[in-house]
Amino acid sequence: MAQRPDGEQPELTGWVLVRMVVREFVRDVRHPTPLTVRYLRCDGCGQVTAHSTDRRLYTIDMARRDITAPPPEAVCDACGHAQPRTVGDEVPVDVTVTCAGTRYRRFGSRRSRRPCGHQFAVPAAAPAVLCPWCATDQPNPARRQPQR
Ligand SMILES: [Zn+2]
Ligand SMILES: [Zn+2]
């Protein structure tokens, strides 16, 4: 009889992979990672807006077998304008606001009635902010009630 530690599979089987995927999924649900939200002054709409997506345009040069990867462009959440990132373009965050939105349900695309309540930092100059935890677009509370 071959010796094997209790409950352990010595060789990599399909079940190990399945178990790994399930474990990853459970970890993901328990510890959701917040979105990366940057606040940039948009060239398109002239406002300080949330930019939560980057766009990268790859140019493939078939003749030279070359792929050019330009710096990613930040896409404005408000108007969809994409602009190249520059050094120091991020508007510094200076106020902390509490999310007034509600979370998404864990499954499906509907939002639950449970308020999100997460706190996150935004620049006071932004008219609208995006919660990195529940992705609710909301008016910037720091704008309506200016903090001394
Ligand atoms: Zn814009
Ligand atoms: Zn939220």
Describe this protein with a few key phrases.
30% strand, binds zinc ion, 148 residues, two-stranded antiparallel sheet, three-stranded antiparallel β-sheet
List each distinct ligand once.
zinc ion
How much helix, percentage-wise, in residues?
Answer: 10-25%
Main beta sheet, described?
3 strands, antiparallel
Distance between the termini: 76 Å
Q: For this entry, what is the oligomeric state of its chains?
A: single chain
Written as H for each helix and E for each strand, in order along the chain, the element string is HEEEEEEEEEEEEEH
Radius of gyration: 22 Å
- The share of residues in extended strands comes to 25-35%
Number of domains as seen in the coordinates: 1
Which spans have pLDDT < 50 for at least 5 consecutive residues?
none
Structure description:
The mean pLDDT is 82. The chain has one domain. Strands 3-6-7 form a three-stranded antiparallel β-sheet, with no helix packed on it. It is an alpha+beta fold and 148 residues long. It has helices spanning 14-30, 141-144, and strands at residues 38-41, 48-51, 53-55, 59-61, 66-68, 73-75, 82-84, 95-98, 102-104, 111-115, 119-122, 128-130, 137-139.
Task: Produce the secondary structure layout.
Elements lengths: L13 H17 L7 E4 L6 E4 L1 E3 L3 E3 L4 E3 L4 E3 L6 E3 L10 E4 L3 E3 L6 E5 L3 E4 L5 E3 L6 E3 L1 H4 L4
Antiparallel strand pairs: 1-2, 3-6, 4-5, 6-7, 8-11, 9-10, 12-13
The site of one zinc ion (ZN) has 8 residues, from loops.
